Model the fold of this input.
Amino acid sequence: MLKDSTTLIKIVVVLVLLRIFSMVYFPYADTTEPRYAEIARIMAITGDWITPWFESDKPFWGKPPLSFWFQAISINAFGVEEWTARFPSLIVTLITVWVIFKCAIEYAGNRAAYWAVAIYATCALPYASAGAVLTDPYLALGTVLCMAGLLFPSVSWRIAGFIGLAIGLLSKGPLALVLVLGPILMSLLVFRTKFWPPIQKPLLLMGSLLVMALVLPWYILAEIKTPGFLDYFIVGEHFRRYVDPGWAGDIYGSAHVKPYGSIWPLWIEATFPWGVVAIIAAVNVFIKGRAKLYLENITKDPVTFYYVSWAIFSMVFFTFAGNILWTYILPAIPPFAILFGKKLSEWSDTSNNTITSIMGIWFSIFAVPLGIFIATVNISENPYLVKTEKMLIEYPKAIGLGYQDLWYINERPFSARYYSNGSVKLINVDDFDQMLKLHPYDELFLAVPFGIMFDFQEKHLDEKGIKWEYVTKGHSKRFELLHIHKTQVPGKLHHPL
Done:
């Protein structure tokens, strides 16, 4: 198992092909992917590379623009498709995998590096985020470059480390600095000395100036262009968001309220299935009474402790945060893959490699990729299984009407905005009657939430004699699609097309 680079390359090629399939055929499901894809689409068509826009009149202050830049460039190059906004994350993840490979070779040799790549690439979160419209793959690349730059003494790696810090600051902000400094400080507290090759002062100065030159211009321009950005982003997004579980200052959505300590079970989800395998292995070590020996080995070797600190710091840091997502764990998975890759390479050298163990390894490698592949096939044929408005949005266009003839009642999901190129309209149910009087139409479409459907049709359609029809092939998981006609026929109800 994974004894040569040829096997690893074959596995990586299969993984990339499976991921590309999902990138092409899996529809955007609310809320994160279509929200960020819509921001990137707006950036691509407006050419505003300073301020990401949440809507045409509302700037998006929640994240720096690096991911949106690459997504917008991809959209401009290849068109507005699901895969075009996802494509940059796949490339970024492949670069991250390459850095992990280099770190693992330096730490434990080629075999460990093969395992580290296989583990990282097939953990649930890295695989899902590769080829997804997210900011987190960029943060993961930035942190892994920065941490690797500290370990490797060459000038090129040191410069790469500073560039990694800039990538982190332009993809997630000051959080990147925290996630880098935390493991370093933990290592210094234990060993009380710098164990990595020293950084020469001229290089340190040059690297610091490079980071400032890459990062500060955008932060300054963003504040000048939309005053208030720094207060919201620095104070709100990086302090209030984490200490206040129900932070009401989030102007772009709802807070993700979780009990304190939830980051740890989320780690199991994010690293599945390898995290489960690692836990079983750790329990086995404890049962055999070898836990003390393992801990002694960790504290004796500064590089191993550095990787362990890096692997656990994100979870320690977010333990007392009440507003978290599983994506926060992504920067901690590269060192986990390197450490566990070393152990698996040692195990494969000493074990008998029974059929059961070999089957277990192959299952672990392909469980997540094949699971997502099967889900993609199913959902591409039955998009009503996920929260996407793709099929609903496409129906009016398919019969020759424009997106401007479609109104969403009470809520306009991000996927509706994206798939309509920002054209669908939003109307509150209480304003519907007035809108209908003022809106000149021959026919239009309404997307009505299932929860208010019967009340809406009775009060706003039937009682007013408005002619309407269900569009049975146009509904989504959350909304019924109604076709409204100009001709009014009191008391007459038209059913499915």
